[in-house]
Amino acid sequence: MTEAHPHFHSEDCRKVSRLLARIGDKWSVLIVMLLANGPRRFNEMKRMIDGISQRMLTLTLRGLERDGLVSRTVYPTIPPRVDYELTPLGHSLREPVMALGQWAQANLGAIAAAQEDFDRRCAAEGKEPRHSPPDVARPQARA
Which stretches does the entry tag as region Disordered (predicted)? Predict the structure, then answer.
């Protein structure tokens, strides 16, 4: 039997978990990758991120801004122009996010093969495969 690590239940661990949930979600990762090369406008990002709703982009940018990773600059023009860019703290996240994205890209085939193998084994055993996130091999169709 494995002994539980006492630090996994500390308040710091809960804070780290919440932060990792924020910076590890798919929209935050995509936004950090988009902003890695410089500031972008809201609608520009919305066009570039397939499948993100205006509400989700707003909520994600707001969360990243609250965490100090993204800054928002409003220019007094008509209509107002708003740019988003990575802060110095956000720039420090670029390397790990890019590495994660490169790892995912490099392993898409292996993950798809593992999913198909798992699904075949489940079918042979008469079990329904359980999927948490959408399959890598077969993206979910939008309704």
Answer: 123-143
Cα(133)–Cα(113) distance, integer angstroms: 16
pLDDT, position 7: 59
- Strands (DSSP E) contained in the chain are 40-41, 70-75, 81-86
Stated as kind and residue range, the H or E segment containing 115 is helix 88-124
Residue 135 has pLDDT above 60, yes or no: no
* pLDDT of 138 strictly over 60: no
- In whole angstroms, give the CA distance from residue 98 to residue 50: 18
Give the C-alpha separation, 74 to 93, whole Å. 24
Distance CA 27, CA 142 (A): 16
Average pLDDT over residues 2-6: 56
> Residue 95 has which token pair?
């390397």
Helix, strand, or coil (residue 29): helix
CB 66 within 8 A of CB 87: no
Residues facing 16 on adjacent strands: none
Tokens of 11: 């308040």
Residue-level pLDDT at 139: 43
**11-24 helix and 26-35 helix, angle to the nearest 10 degrees:** 70
